[in-house]
Amino acid sequence: MHKTYLKLAAVTGALSVALGAFGAHALKEKLPADALAIYETAIRYQFYHVFALLATGILYKDFSNKWIHNAGKLFILGTILFSGSLYLLTAFKGMGNENMNWIGAITPLGGLSFILGWLFLVMGISKK
User: Fold this and answer.
1) Which of 13, 25, 46, 66 could cross-link with 50 by S-S, CB 3.0 to 4.6 Å?
2) Spatial contact of 76 and 1, defined as CB atoms under 8 Å apart
3) Is the pTM here over 0.90, yes or no?
4) Residue partners of 17: CB distance under 8 A and separation at least 6
């Protein structure tokens, strides 16, 4: 399982850089400042959790337990919910559709997943 987390970290890292470049070059002139700030937050947290997945993959080799495994799942879920909801929110704001602002209510669930992932990582390391 550790290789899966390492591969996902690598793919997510590449995607983070690509999305960051897209935002900096293609979206900068097309989005309002508040939408661009939301997009940048999505990329930043996605990229932070590339390192979380890398750590999970590396740690899983020596600390292979359910806590570490579930930490990886939570980091992935957090990225989807947190960054994914912010990417969607950015897209709708960019199209001028303010009716979809409710998508922002999903973001804290992703944040909670990130927090739990980090706590599960602590528990997994403590169980060795």
Assistant:
1) 13
2) no
3) yes
4) 47
Provide the 3-class DSSP secondary structure of residue 33: helix
What's the rounded Cα separation, in Å, for the pair 30 and 45?
A: 22
CA distances from 9 to 5, 75, 115, 123 (A): 6, 10, 18, 21
Tokens of 26: 């293609």
Tell me the two tokens of residue 110. Answer: 């992703």
> pLDDT tens digits for 4-25?
999 999 999 999 999 998 888 8
Rg of the chain over Cα atoms, rounded to whole angstroms, equals 16
- Which range marks the domain in which residue 21 is found? 2-126
